[in-house]
Amino acid sequence: MTGQADLTIIGGGITGLASxxxxxxxxxxxxxxxxxxxxxxxxxxxxxxxxxxxxFYHHFFTxxxxxxxxxxxxxxxxxxIYKKTTMGTFRNHRLYxxxxxxxxxxxxxxxxxxxxxxxxxxxxxxxxxxxRNYERVTALEWFYTNAGAxxxxxxxxxxxxxxFGPYADKIPLSWMIGRLRQRLNSRKSGDERLGYLQGGLDTxxxxxxxxxKELNVELINEAPVxxxxxxxxxxxxxxxxxKGVWEQGKFLFTIPGPxxxxxLPEFTQTQEKLESIKYFGAVCVILETKHKLSDTYWIxxxxxxxxxxxxxxxxxxIGPEHYQGKHITYLSRYFDVNDKLFQATDKQISDKMxxxxxxxxxxxxxxxxxxxxxxxxxxxxxxxxLNFSARVSNCKTEFGxxxxxxxxxxxxxxxxxNNSIRVAAEACKIMGMNKVNVPIGASLSAQIGFSND
Length: 453
Fold this sequence. Notes:
By secondary structure, this protein is an alpha+beta fold.
């Protein structure tokens, strides 16, 4: 055990690292314990085409005030770029552009009345609805009633099936309000502009790690917490890792709830809440090809029978000239941990997904593929069901010096780097830091579990 710390953070993903930065800026002595070899969590990247690329696709929105704040703090503003992007939907064996009113009118799977209802309900949810009023109604139930069957069957149900699989019919409308709020606020005159960093999120991660070292933050990798020890006052006395036992100060846990729950005393409020929240996983098959598949950045696959739900052509966003001329495409799929896909090998996954591209792009030659990369995680997002907010743990727990801030606190918004920074900022406030200057943007994250009551 080395020197004492005012704050020990368990988990070196973006929430943990952003919390460490905010705390260290206020003069606290901070330590970060990370279970794996690399810090960054879902921000991690690999080398491709002489550049870095995320395991799981990422982008920023124009209204993401929190990520803009951190980018400025780290002095990498010149690396942030925004570009117009395009979307499409594959439905009834046909690829439709889906970028504005005219595309909606030409989208034949939805009736004319259904298109009007789709537009009105989307605007209502994205601009006017209060998410707190819709936690007890499922998104599918509300869409069938208000948007109509043709719009729901053609767009909303496939999207929820892609995202949540067996949990699709349990997702509250509140989550959909958070998602639509993001998408609609990033559009101007129908066009969507998304942001990215030159060099990918590795640019952000390396700048942040460098800054933390300047602030004397102790960064300890390959140090998973294996046990939590409590004293007679119901406070954490120490946490145990293969690299030592760490004690004193406050402890902030940013790792998934089930990982924390198994180390806590049973039948306590925090243990029961953390244990009750389920996570689902994600897999991305990344293709390097000689030519692009289409001119579209993001395609939602709304037909049944496909093992991927999204086709994200990254180099239709950040051009192939940044990757030595290589064209890069993600095939994405969310899955339940009980899904047989979870047990499959990387090759089995890619061998199943890749041939299905021929059904969408008949002219695509499989010999055009130069390389394939497969990445997966068991903790891609939380399964948010009805009245989910009641099950989210308070950041300040009943254990005196123990705090929790993780992916569950992003609800009802969508998982993102920006929203993780928002959660980190609110956690620091709850821990007594009174000079947190992170601007509050349009994010709906960190509105649950951060009161001082």
